[in-house]
Amino acid sequence: ALERSHSINDFSKQLELSAKNSQFTNNTLKIIEELNNGVKQASEELKEKAFDLQHAITPLKEFGKNYPEFALKPKEALEKLLQEKNGQVAGAAFRDDLGGIDFVWGNKDHGLEHILKKREKQYTRLGLNAEQIKERTDELIKEIPNILQKGFKQEDKPGYAVITLNNSKVILSKFKGDNELKNHYMITSFERDEKALRELDTIATLSNDYRDGINYSISNLNEPNLTPKPLTNQEELLENPPKTTQTPLSPLEQANAEKLAKLESERLESEKEFTRLKEQEIARKEALKKKLEHERGNAGNIESATKIEVGEDIPTHTQAQIPKSRVRLNEREIYDLNYAIVKAKDLKPSFTTGGTQKRTDMNEEQIKSIAQNFDPKKIFGSGGFEDLPIILHDGQVIAGNHRIQGMLNFTPKSRFAYEKAVKEYYHIDLKPDELLVRIPNKRLNNTEINNLAASSNQGRFNSESDHAIAVLSHYEPKLKELEKQLNADSVYSLKNMVAKNLNFDKATHPNVGDSNLSLLMFNMPRTKTQGIELLNRWQKEFTNDIKSYEKVKKMFVDNAGSFHNLIHDMSFPNVSLNAYLSDIMDRSFANLKNYQTTSESLKDLSEKFYKTNSLEMFEKSDQGASDISEILGASVARFARFDDPSKALFEALRSDNIKKGLKEFKIADVTKDMFDPNSKEFKDIDIYDFTHYLLMVNREPNENNPTLKRLIEAIKDMQKESEKGIKEASKKSAEAVKKLHFDEIKKLIDESPNNGKDIIVIGDDNLTPEIVEYIQKNHKRIAVEKIEPSFAKDLQLKYPDDARAVIDYQAINHILKEHKNLSYEDIANYRELSKQANETLKLKDNQNRPVVASFNQINGFFVVVEQVSNAKNELMLKTMYKARGNYKDSLIYKKTLAKSQNSN
Asked: Which residue numbers delimit the DdrB-like domain (predicted)?
């Protein structure tokens, strides 16, 4: 039909005639009908666009002479009008979303002349001469065509449109005075870098700089010129310095000059001191970073591993004639898939933990086989996940990374086999740069993508790590909801309880192994020895002794619930076990690999660490992990040598057994011994005390082991040194912060990020009334100080050792508006009021977040400070109250007390 046609109408008629006269199947007739409808629709659209274009280039008499030869040529049209300084170019530009855009010379009230006059006035105020003004305005206005073509329509008001690109705006209007221009827009205003222009407007002395010929680009008005003058000019100036006449200063001018010089000197000195203190703080952080990172408790942070960033859609051509494909995960999770043709270059296979399938390894042989010896029978018609690859709308691969990578590397022979198979199976002729894939019929959320990707890999993981990260992604939503304590009387009951709690589909039997593996990975920190990565490494190390590898792995996976319970056990808030979990697992594998017996291991560790300087050893360590991790790993590894490793470790990690052991080995007790200043309560033990306990538990009574005693002495030395280092660092930090002046604190606040672990802590002493006012008026948010770890853990903050007390402008606004008897001075004192309170109550707010209410009785008044914990590991100031009387008689106290008693 196409060959016999000379126009679109001919083609439609020939197509209809062929359909009537030929014996086509119903499917073919349906395709012909769809094609014909598409042709008619396209024809109508072309007619409509042609009409719009014709209308766009029709001049309006209101704007004078038209230059039609420059229609649809915005750059040339602009140059013509700047040259002629009159008339118009109708339809100088055209956009599908707006229609025709006229370039009009206009007058001082509208059009290009209006824009030029406005800028000339602005540059005159800045002190530019006539030549510089012309150069600037010409350069500025010539950006308009590019903005119109590449910019996007930011907003639409009746009769107006705004096109923006980077920092520039072109404003279009449909009006000339009160008269509306039918189906036409004209340029009426142009704005660029207004903030920079306003800043320059306030600097009175700039005119001299401009007269001296400094070349400022209109695109970078607020940036210094870095182009040096020619060297010859500088040499001439050195040889023949210009003669200037110095006008004597009056006494008043001289006094002002001296005052300014003194202020400048003080400012420079203050800035120098600020820089020194900042560098000192950075150096301190760097020196202690490795030593303290294990105490930060940064486990469970798997957002970066499981959150999928979906980009812009790639071009796709859906093949509606092919029946939809389908993959089924279970009875409730069934996904329809469309077939689509895509450009090969747009596909994004991934073999890292950052992709949809979160792989840590690739099978190069599999890719090579697909690329060089493609066998269609292994893919086409297989159904489910084994068929054609499944991708997201942005080209990321959900299922079939190896297949896609192999197809991208096709040899000519394999490409020929692939195209032939596509033709036979689907009756599609592909272009050389195209591939046929499957795309979900509907947009998927993060959980659905993770589940689909994880299910596609079931039973065919390339590595242990691929398996671990797949189950972690799959169970993530359930892991976040898991109860903090899982009470079970045996390791068998515990691992089944984990599986039951994490099971998505109650109709299917829980997967005990996968669910417990996901919980173990979830509670590990994101470090280079993280469980996900180290599983691969140790599996390879144990190639000749796979039973030992499986023994250690099973012991850890079976006890995922035990570690989970201990991490969230409020009886031991300072242990922060999650920060060490991956190191413990890593060192347990290493210990079993390197030593035949536990005795050999302990002897070696004893010789290595007894009477050595822990910090020196730590700094020399290639692995960058604290020494205590190595001993902790060895203390857990010995359980792998028991007859039933999982059971033995389970018993050792039970909360009641830990308390019993701490008391038995004289490490800690329910209460302190009043005659022993070094005694501890259970709640005060740290990771060193816990390691001491693990080395002692499950040994023969009265066992006399000199090696073990020396190792425990080494642990105590490490503990003292760690405490000393932390105290010294805190002391230095506090001293450094106390020295800051108001301007330095302001600068610190301005340079600090608003959120995250990098937000700068200014110190309680620096939260002055002036700083509170500065925070409020400049919409700032800062960390005042760090919170006691035990208190932070009570508030369920994620990383108790790095939790901060934070104040922001919104809280200050609320307090000053709602409680007018409070001042900046009261707010500046809020942390002291909180810490020295007569009574502190903990409760939950309407969003189930922990809240701290602190009540203070001061000189016949009572002051209440409310702070709320958030998901950012912060304790935020919420509000303050101040009233006359006794706080215990107040309604706010009675209500808070009732809520506190009803909270868990």
From this structure: 331-440
